[in-house]
Amino acid sequence: MTLTANWSRQSGSDRTEEYRTWRTTLGQGCVCDVDQIEYKFRDGVLVPCAIVELCVADQRSDEIPAGVPPNQPPSPNFLKAVEAKACMDRPQGKLLRLVAATLKVPLLLVVYVDGRLPDGLWVFRVDGSKGWRKMSREEYMERLGKL
Question: In degrees, to the nearest 5, what angle opens at C-alpha 56 toward C-alphas 89 and 111?
């Protein structure tokens, strides 16, 4: 047997989907996946830097208004729904905020449009953001480097 990364199928499909779908049907407790924990090494010590919740906006009319050119944000309603997921009192948001607080790192919501990652990202910092901020991939990586 060869160990293969969860996302390494040529189709790019998530190979853990079967388990995750099954797990949510059990009715025993709750489950929440944390999309990413950003970390770095400082003086040889592993240091967590941020919790990242990723959301992808499909290029459908309800998420990307018709006729919107590249480099434009997803619809305000889509961004509000993403924000509500982590900022309101929904269990997933509570758990994400708890994990971030326990690690003493920020919780970042990151949205990009499916197939348009080169156009940039929209980032929301949950613990005091002044709203969504459009960032290029380079700006985002620079920001992560400063955490």
Answer: 70
Global confidence as pTM:
0.78
Evaluate whether residue 66 is within a structural domain: yes
CB 86 within 8 A of CB 126: yes
Q: How many domains are there within the chain?
A: 1
Average pLDDT rounded to a whole number, residues 33-47 = 93
Read off the amino acid at residue 130: K
Q: In what order do the strands lie in the sheet with 133-135?
A: 36-42, 45-57, 107-113, 121-125, 133-135
Q: Which two tokens stand for residue 81?
A: 């729904």
* Residue 76 in domain: yes
Contacts of 90 (CB under 8 A, 6+ apart): 84
Question: Across the strands, what pairs with 55?
Answer: 111
DSSP codes joined into one string, 30-42:
------EEEEEEE
